[in-house]
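Incident log, structure service

09:12 report received: a user says their structure output differs between two submissions of the same chain.
09:20 pulled the input from the user's history:
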Amino acid sequence: MKKKVAVIGYGGMGGWHVDHIQNSDVVELAGIYDIKEERQELARSRGIRAYSSREELLADPEIEMVTVATPNDVHEEIAIAALEAGKNVLSEKPVTLSLESLERMIAASKKAGKIFSVHQNRRFDVDYLAMKKLRDSGEIGEIINIESRIHGSRGIPSDWRGIKKYGGGMLYDWGIHLIDQALMILGFDVDSVRCTFDHITNEEVDDGFKLFIDMKDGKNAFIEVGTYNFIAMPRFYMRAKSGTALITDWREKCRVVKCKAWHESDVLPVETAAGLTKTMAPRDSITVDEYEIERPQSDVHDYYRNFVRAIDGKEEQLVTHDQMRTVLKVIMKAFESVERGGDRVYF
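09:34 re-ran on a clean worker, output below:
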């Protein structure tokens, strides 16, 4: 039997959740609630029940799950109220705006005996999945480092994402996804963080950032988000002990160059405009294999399927509390690094 779920917040992501819930094989929509009457009316016009208040929604005994899709600054208040009402809670990202807030949410979920998690939907992005598949296969050896970028050219959105008190800024908006993806590839044992912000189109919050994450085992990640880049750099770049992988754009396949022989003694110098170089001499088919990885199959609704099975005790929840803690701690340390002029901040 499908579990009934209600959505609090019927904006962009709230509407996205509703669409997926209405086509789900594991949950069915009980209704929505939004503080804006025009969104309540929009839901009703689409044949969706709009509860008159959050209290009415949480009092409905048929609802087993609540999806929180509001601006970031009220996630904690709503999630804890839902947990105390006996509902399982799925929060949009970022789950909240401080580690202390997250711990209160986790404590509330444990006290209520309910499942609580954050919707890291970009674990289902096919570009990320291609990189993770390559890591998991071991075919290019141990990973050295990964670079992950999202570049756009339209500046920061002119909604709540540009306002600090609502948890605006690109570190919270896109950074939370890219950090989670990088740690899913490199592991969650973080050593230190360095970060700088862009303020090109918005002075109140970051409209871009550059983030360095060093792991305790020596691996590292470079994560960059830019909203004023009219030429985008590659989406993913990963170096490993036996090769390199590149994804230029999320719509493209993953290109891999795998080293199969070193042949240092056979390298012939190449002539450049300013002289000869042996160090940068190109590889050939004798020493490397070049190929592409097909885009993996992915279904983002597997998140809801996992959440339902976790409620039933059949699976562990996909995004764990410890993972949520570590990703949010990277965010907090990144803010601290910015305040200290981009200095390294240790975990």
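09:41 both user submissions now match this output. Likely a transient worker issue. Closing.
09:42 reviewer note: The first helix runs from residue 12 to 22. The chain is about 30% helix and 25% strand.
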